[in-house]
Structures are given as structure tokens and as C-alpha cells.
Amino acid sequence: MPQNEWILDVLADLKTFASTNGMRVLAEQLDDTKLIAAAEIASQKEEARSLGHGESSQFGKHTGGLGRHQRA
Length: 72
What we know:
72 residues; mainly alpha; 2 helices; 61% helix; elongated; disordered C terminus
């Protein structure tokens, strides 16, 4: 499974648990949270794709190489 997508499965499991146990509001919130997580993951993938093509990021031009990009 790709680096961060496991969290979507965890959120889905939590939503199922909440729904099964009568926690309707929590289940709805977890559904919203899953959408936000999916959007953030997609955004990170797009940013990585852009940096891989040598485009500028908020910190300047990426020159390639290995390593991890983290935000503060």
C-alpha cells in the first residue's frame, strides 16, 4: 500500500465501528475526515510529481535526489 493511504483504511474501520455502535455523529465526522485525508494524500502526490519534474515548490526549485520532504 502506498506510503500514506493506509490511514484511509483505518478511518473506514473507525467509521464502521462508530456506525455499528450507534455513534452516528462520530461516523459522519469520520466520513468527512476520510475525505480530507484523501484530498491531502492526493495533494502530496501531486506535489511530489511536480517536484520530480523540477518545478518550484514553496521552498524553491527542487534539484532531485533522495530524501523525504516534510512540512513543519
